[in-house]
Amino acid sequence: MAIFNKKSKKKKNHDDDYEEYYDEYDEYDEYDDYEEYSDDEFEEETYEPPKKSRPETSNKRERLDNTMRKQEQEAQQEQVAVIEHLKNENQQFQKEMQRQRTMAERLKAEVENKQQEIDQLTMRLTSSSKSKETIIALEEQVKQAENLRIQLDEQLLDERNKCIETEKQLRQQDLMKNQIAEVLMEAKEKAQQIIERATIEADRTVEAARHETKKAVSEASIELKMINQEAANYHTRILRLQSETSVLMEELLSKSSRLADQSLE
């Protein structure tokens, strides 16, 4: 429909040019600039205006038609090229969004796996012995979990940067700006939601593991203090018993010595 209107408009312009050409030609008269004189001063003469060059005008019109047809063909070719270009851009954008969704799902799966590992680690912290070496090993595992969370955050940031780069590339396109902007905004919001959910889950997981580790370390420290206190009390009782035994032995030896002396007398 737009092409038909374009053709009608061009044809109308062509007719206007044709009429304008003859209008300008008719307006020109080499005798218009001369003053008029009465019939008494000059004899009446018959004047025949110059004939208009119809063949030359026909050639001009034919050239104009050819030019307009050529421009119309070029416009149609350009329109086809633009549509093909937009299709290619849309396909590339869909592929990029699919890749980003796949990456987000993979990262989410890794976060869930890490959550399971941290849960297992928490169970081990609860059920294992409270020795110093075990606590140090558990703290090392927590550090590794935190390092892994940092790596996941870096990957998420990299995906966010890629999304921003994709947005910049799409914004550079001059055609179909409104549609591209709408698709871009939806993709950005979805990617942002995925990134935020993954970040929140990772933060919660690490925070829970850190809390459980601190709790286990605190309980182990209290238990060690109690064991040390009991050992100190036991040592004190042994020393007191040893002291009491020594006194008793001395008393027995003294009594034995007195009895021996009395027997000799």
Automatic annotation (TrEMBL):
Residue ranges, compositional bias (Basic and acidic residues): 48-73
Ranges of compositional bias, category Basic residues: 1-12
Compositionally biased region (Acidic residues): 16-47
Positions of the UniProt region annotated as Disordered: 1-78
Organism: Enterococcus ureilyticus
Protein's name according to its UniProt entry: Cell division protein DivIVA
Domain of life the protein comes from: Bacteria
